[in-house]
Amino acid sequence: MALDFRSGFVTLIGRTNVGKSTLMNQLVGEKVAIMSNKPQTTRNKIQSILTRENYQIIFIDTPGIHKPKHKLGQYMVQAAKNTLNEVDLILILVEASKTVGKGDQYVIEQLENINTPVFLVINKIDTVHKEELLEIIDIYKDLYDFDEIIPVSALTGENCDVLLDEISKRLPEGPQYFPPDMITDQPERQLVAELIREKALHLLEEEIPHGIAVGVELMKKRENKDIVDINAVIYCEKDSHKAIIIGKQGAMLKEIGTKARQEIERLLGSKVFLQLWVKVRKNWRDDSFSLRNFGFDSKNI
Fold first, then answer.
1. Is 179 helix (H, G, I), strand (E, B) or coil?
2. Phi/psi of residue 59, each to 5°?
3. What's the mean pLDDT when you consider all of the chain?
4. Which of 60, 88, 210, 295 sits 20 to 30 Å CA-CA off 234?
5. 214: Cα separation from own chain's centroid
6. Which CATH architecture fits 188-300?
């Protein structure tokens, strides 16, 4: 390890659906967080780890900061806010737009009384002309005294090397917290549950995804065979939602299962036999017991 090795914790915050998970996956070079074009995809703090010769960055991808409508929403916002004074650097992510939306303003307001350095990361620069970008930077300069303003495209990777370089300069000297080949602290069961939920998010109608959770009830490697058996339950809040998730003659559930199985096999590096069930658990997003059951930290509920 280099003598001047640097390490630290960096949190990504921003309104929902601004590209935090895409950026984290781009920076780490691996898919750690699930992605979707629907809001509130990320529900838990997810740590991913990037180790280079002279530094290690532990990224914390937080749920989007928004005004909550139920206990799950309160949990998500609290989980995001709790990281702000606990990290070495905050990245606040916004889209490349000349309009600062209420959601972005609300997130910036949460930075009051925060002593942690803050970088503004303007995402989706692949969607605007360069002269427009200068105007956008000027607009945000007046809203907060950011330590750095760095435009990137999380999708194409443009300027992400510059962002990493600037982050590494801000890290304190410190130890290598995780082994160099480790890219996340998430248990495999959690990653599997999230991959199943991601496929459901992609395939289901607008109003249903927020009301689903996934519990992995069995995950076991078969003796003397390169096959992992996984039994998982998709929980939803309404009987009508259950019917849609299952689909006509089970077609939707089968498609969710097929797409999830393919990604889980890549994740685990072995064949997977995946069985999915759908159960109704009414109003689970407002039930503390259910939230704890689904792995949400009770400190944030």
1. coil
2. -85, 140
3. 81
4. 60
5. 16
6. 2-Layer Sandwich (3.30)
Task: Tell me which residue has tokens 């905050």.
Answer: 90
pLDDT at 105 over 70: yes
**Tokens 């309009």 label which residue?**
99
The residue type found at 1 is M
Pick the closest to residue 4 from 55, 58, 52, 59 (CA basis).
55
Distances (CA, A) of 130 to 22, 178, 218: 22, 39, 51
pLDDT recorded at residue 153: 93
pLDDT in the model for residue 42: 42
**Radius of gyration, alpha carbons of the chain:** 20
Q: Write down the pLDDT at residue 67.
A: 59
Residue 44 has pLDDT above 60, yes or no: no
- Whether the CB-CB separation of 256 and 196 falls below 8 Å is answered with yes
**Can you tell me the mean pLDDT for 236-261?**
91
* Cα–Cα dist 101/29, whole Å: 30
Given a contact cutoff of 8 angstroms between Cβ atoms, the answer to whether 170 and 141 are in contact is no
Percent over 70 (pLDDT), the chain = 77
Q: What is the DSSP secondary-structure string of 224-266?
A: TSSEEEEEEEEEES-HHHHHHHH-GGGHHHHHHHHHHHHHHHH
Q: Single out the residue of 77, 149, 73, 148 nearest to residue 107, CA to CA.
A: 77
b or e along 123-143 (b: 16 or more beta carbons within 10 Å of the residue's beta carbon)?
A: bbbeebeeeeeeebbeebeee
d(CA 77, CA 106): 12
Is the CB of residue 195 less than 8 Å from the CB of residue 230?
Answer: no
What's the pLDDT score for residue 266? Answer: 81
CATH number of 6-170: 3.40.50.300
Return residue ranges of the chain for CATH 3.40.50.300: 6-170
